[in-house]
Amino acid sequence: MIRLFVLIILFCYSTVAFAIDKEKFCKIIKKYQDKSFETSNGLKLQQLRRKRKKDLSSLKSKAFEWKGKIAAIDSVGSEYAYVSVRICEDTYVKTWNNEFSDMTSKTLIHIDSKMFDQLIEFSEGDEVKCSGTFSSSKEDYFLETSMTEKGSLLEPEFLVKFSSFEKVN
Fold first, then answer.
1. Residue 31 near residue 55 (C-beta atoms within 8 A)
2. Considering the domain 2-167 in this protein, what is its CATH number?
3. Rounded to two decimals, what is the model's pTM?
């Protein structure tokens, strides 16, 4: 019983202790947003995205626990919710917003889950504390869902699997 308790404590500590530092994450994103504003050259944008990937990979974790603002929240079909949280300037963590895109990622929040019950109380603009894990990507390190290179750099939207939401007063 004591071993189980120690393992639970270590797991909880490791999740918080190894979570990505939001300030470092946002600093990396901002660095490449600023550089992207300076060019429309597709080759330079490709290179900036690759450099951002390298910088993001230095964070060594895929877990996060951050405060942000609900940017979008809505239902998907009859059983799911999607949510997007603004975590730093023009930067979002989100689920997919449709079941087709989410077929393999499983980021949408099911109506029978505790998180769905939490989300019912939120509206766009609400401040929240959310936690979860980033989806992996060969192209961006963390899976980024924008349709264009420029969009990926200027207003990145990172796909995540949320694990909890809490309203911030």
1. yes
2. 2.40.50
3. 0.87
